[in-house]
Specification:
2 strands; 23 helices; elongated; single chain; mainly alpha; 508 residues
C-alpha cells in the first residue's frame, strides 16, 4: 500500500509539473445534482488523485481488519512450528550427547508439536530409545519405519546397527541386503556387504558387488577400478596354489588384469610378473614391471625384475637394472636402484658418486645399510662401521617390510588382503600389514665382515709373545694342573741408555 501511495503522489507531481511548464493551467467544470464546480485542470487532477489515494487506503484498511483472524492463526501456527523445530533440534542434540532421558522427554513433546514432520519424530524416538539403552523400544521404532516408503532405508540402517550390536551378523546382513536392493540404494549398505565378503575371503562375491555398485553409481569409477585391481590380486593369490591347472590359469589372468587396471598396485604387478615368468613369458613379465615402475616404483618391483633372469653375468644384470631405473629416473627408488646396479657391476667409485643423490633423503635403516655397502666396497671399513651403527637406530621403511626373507614378496593372509582392498580402494595408498604387525622383514643392514683387526698383543714385552690363559682350568687337564709359568721379564736397560719418548734423537 505504501508503494501504491508513492506511485500516485509521483504521478500527481508529474502532471502538475507538466501543466506548469506548459504555461496554461487549463479549466475543468463538474456539474452534479444542480451544482456546478469550476476549477483549473491541475486542481482537478490533484483532487482526483487524492480521492484515489484515500479510497485505496480505506480499502486496504478494511481488508486488514477482515483478515485479522487469519493473521492471528498464522502467527500461532508459525510459533508452534518454531517451537517444534526447537524441540526436535534439542532432542537430536540430547540423543547425540547420550542423554537418553532428556532425549525421550523431548521426543514425547515433539509428538504433540511436530505434527507436520512425523518422520523426524519417529527418528528422534528411535535414537532417544537407543541413547537411553532401551533396545526393545528402539527396535520397535525402527521396525515401524519400515511401513513408510520414505523411511524404509533409515529403518533398515537402525535395525542393522542394533543387530550388529547384539552380535547377530546374519540379521545385520539381511537388513543391509534389503537396503541395497531398494530402488535408491545407499553406500552404507554396500559397504556393510563388502566388508562381510572381504571378511569371508569371498573375492568373487566382492568383485560382483563392486561391479553392481559401479553400475548403480554408488561408488566413483576410480574407486571401483582400484577395488577391482586389489580384489583380483587377492583372488589370484588364493588360486595360484590350486591343484587344477584351470585354477592356476585363472590366477594368471586375474593377476595380469589387476596389473593392467592399476600399474601402481605393486602386489598385483609382482604377482603377475612371477606367474608370467613361471608360464615362460619372461618378456611380458619384464614389460609389466617396466610399466609399473613408470607409474609407481617399489623395491619389490626391481627385485622381481632382477630375478627374471638368473643365467647372466653381474655386468649384464647391472645393465638391465640400469634400464629399469632410467624409466623413472627422478624417483627415489630409481636413485636407490642406480646405486644398487653400480654395486652389482663392481663399480664402487661410481656407486659412491651415485649415492650423493640420496643425501637429502630421510635417514632410514635401508639407506644406512646401502651406504655401508657402498663404503665397504670402496675400502672404507671405518665409514661402513659408522653407517652400520647409524642404521641400528634409524627407523625402518614400510615398503621394505613387504619383502619376506623366508618367501616371496607380499606374503599376505586373507585378513591382510581384506584390509589392503579397503584402504587401496578408498585412498589409493598401499598399506603394509607386515610392517604394522612388526613382523620380521628383509634385513635392511648388510652382513659385512667388519671386525677390527688385531692391533697386537696386550701389554707385550720387548719381543716377547703374550701368554693367554683360558678361563676354564679344565683345558689344562684338571684342577690340579697348574698353568705354565710366565716367561722371565727381559733385562732392563741401563739408565744411561734411557731417554724420553719425545726427546730429540742424536744425530748420526
Amino acid at each position: 500500500m505504501i508503494r501504491a501511495a508513492l506511485a500516485i503522489l509521483l504521478i500527481a507531481a508529474a502532471v502538475v509539473a507538466g501543466l506548469a511548464l506548459a504555461g496554461d493551467a487549463g479549466a475543468a467544470s463538474v456539474v452534479w445534482l444542480g451544482w456546478r464546480l469550476d476549477m483549473t485542470a491541475a486542481t482537478a487532477v490533484l483532487i482526483t488523485l487524492i480521492l484515489s489515494l484515500v479510497t485505496t487506503i480505506g480499502w486496504r484498511t478494511l481488508l486488514w481488519v477482515l483478515e485479522a483472524p487469519k493473521r492471528a492463526a498464522r502467527v500461532r501456527i508459525e510459533a508452534r512450528r518454531r517451537q517444534a523445530s526447537e524441540v526436535l533440534t534439542n532432542g537430536f542434540l540430547a540423543a547425540a550427547a547420550g542423554d537418553g532421558s532428556e532425549a525421550r522427554r523431548l521426543a514425547r513433546k515433539a509428538e504433540t508439536l511436530a505434527t507436520e514432520t512425523p518422520g523426524l519424530v519417529r527418528v528422534l524416538a528411535a535414537q532417544a530409545a537407543e541413547a537411553a539403552g532401551d533396545t526393545a523400544a528402539a527396535q520397535a521404532a525402527y521396525t515401524a519405519m519400515l511401513s513408510f516408503p520414505e523411511m524404509r532405508l533409515a529403518g533398515h540402517k537402525g535395525l542393522m546397527a542394533l543387530a550388529a550390536g547384539r552380535g547377530d551378523r546374519e540379521a545385520a546382513l539381511g537388513h543391509a541386503e534389503a537396503a541395497y536392493g531398494a530402488a535408491r540404494p545407499t553406500r552404507w549398505a554396500w559397504r556393510a556387504l563388502l566388508e562381510a565378503r572381504l571378511e569371508a575371503a569371498d573375492w568373487p562375491g566382492a568383485l560382483e558387488l563392486v561391479r553392481t555398485a559401479l553400475a548403480r553409481k554408488i561408488v566413483p569409477p576410480v574407486m571401483a577400478e582400484r577395488a577391482r585391481a586389489a580384489l583380483l590380486a587377492a583372488s589370484a593369490a588364493q588360486l595360484e596354489h590350486a591343484a587344477e591347472p584351470r585354477g592356476r590359469n585363472l590366477a594368471l589372468d586375474q593377476a595380469v588384469e589387476a596389473a593392467k587396471l592399476q600399474p601402481g598396485f605393486a602386489p598385483g604387478v609382482v604377482m603377475a610378473a612371477r606367474l608370467l615368468a613361471i608360464d615362460g613369458k619372461a618378456g611380458r613379465a619384464a614389460s609389466t614391471i617396466e610399466q609399473a615402475w613408470k607409474a609407481a616404483p617399489h623395491p619389490a618391483l626391481w627385485l622381481a625384475y632382477r630375478d627374471l633372469k638368473t643365467a647372466e653375468t653381474p655386468k649384464a644384470r647391472a645393465a638391465r637394472l640400469a634400464g629399469l631405473a632410467a624409466i623413472n629416473p627422478q624417483h627415489r627408488e630409481s636413485r636407490i636402484l642406480h646405486v644398487e646396479q653400480l654395486l652389482i657391476a663392481g663399480d664402487p667409485a661410481g656407486a659412491r658418486d651415485a649415492a650423493l643423490a640420496l643425501d637429502g633423503e630421510p635417514e632410514s635403516a635401508r639407506i644406512a645399510g646401502l651406504m655401508a655397502r657402498v663404503a665397504y666396497a670402496g675400502g672404507g671399513a671405518d665409514e661402513a662401521r659408522m653407517w652400520m651403527a647409524r642404521g641400528l637406530a634409524a627407523p625402518h621403511e614400510p615398503d621394505w617390510s613387504d619383502l619376506d626373507p623366508e618367501g616371496r614378496a607380499f606374503a599376505y593372509h586373507a585378513q591382510d588382503w581384506a584390509r589392503l582392498v579397503t584402504t587401496f580402494a578408498e585412498t589409493g595408498e598401499l598399506i603394509h600389514p607386515r610392517f604394522e604387525r612388526r613382523e620380521r622383514s628383509l634385513s635392511e643392514l648388510p652382513e659385512l665382515p667388519l671386525p677390527y683387526p688385531d692391533a697386537g698383543a696386550f701389554m707385550p714385552g720387548d719381543g716377547a709373545e703374550p701368554v693367554l690363559y683360558p678361563d676354564a682350568p679344565e683345558e689344562y687337564g684338571g684342577e690340579d694342573v697348574q698353568p705354565p709359568p710366565l716367561a722371565p721379564p727381559p733385562p732392563r736397560r741401563s739408565q744411561g741408555r734411557r731417554r724420553l719418548v719425545g726427546g730429540p734423537r742424536a744425530a748420526k
